[in-house]
């Protein structure tokens, strides 16, 4: 498991994460790290999405989602599942899904 291996992981973030620009900041942080994927609000009041990129950068983004988020957010829980190695990226950029 090298840091350069490409991985994909799904995530869901709980807490005060809607109406606080969480998706915009998540998109910006993902792009800054060179990741691709998506982020969207859910009807349950959470934010969910998918990250893809080099293992080391995905792990950095997971830590950001777990502990930082947008300035006005309050994260109570971050769940990550379906982590797997991928041969190539399935997304071309990091998008906010409406």
TrEMBL record:
Signal peptide per UniProt: none
Pfam families in alphabetical order: Acylphosphatase
Keyword set includes Hydrolase: yes
InterPro entries: Acylphosphatase, Acylphosphatase-like_dom, Acylphosphatase-like_dom_sf, Acylphosphatase_CS
UniProt keyword annotations, A-Z: Hydrolase
Entry's Gene Ontology molecular function annotations: acylphosphatase activity
Active site (record annotation): 23, 41
The protein's Enzyme Commission number: 3.6.1.7
Catalytic activity as recorded in UniProt: an acyl phosphate + H2O = a carboxylate + phosphate + H(+)
Acylphosphatase-like domain location: 8-98
Keyword Hydrolase: yes
Family (UniProt): Belongs to the acylphosphatase family.
Record protein name field: Acylphosphatase
Gene designation per UniProt: acyp1
């Amino acid at each position: 498991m090298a840091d350069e291996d490409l991985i994909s992981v799904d995530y869901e973030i709980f807490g005060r994460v809607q109406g606080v620009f969480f998706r915009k900041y998540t998109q910006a942080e993902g792009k800054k790290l060179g990741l691709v994927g998506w982020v969207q609000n859910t009807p349950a009041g959470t934010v969910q999405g998918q990250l893809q990129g080099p293992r080391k950068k995905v792990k950095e983004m997971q830590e950001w989602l777990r502990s930082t988020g947008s300035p006005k957010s309050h994260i109570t829980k971050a769940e990550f599942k379906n982590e797997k190695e991928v041969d190539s990226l399935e997304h071309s950029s990091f998008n906010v899904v409406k």
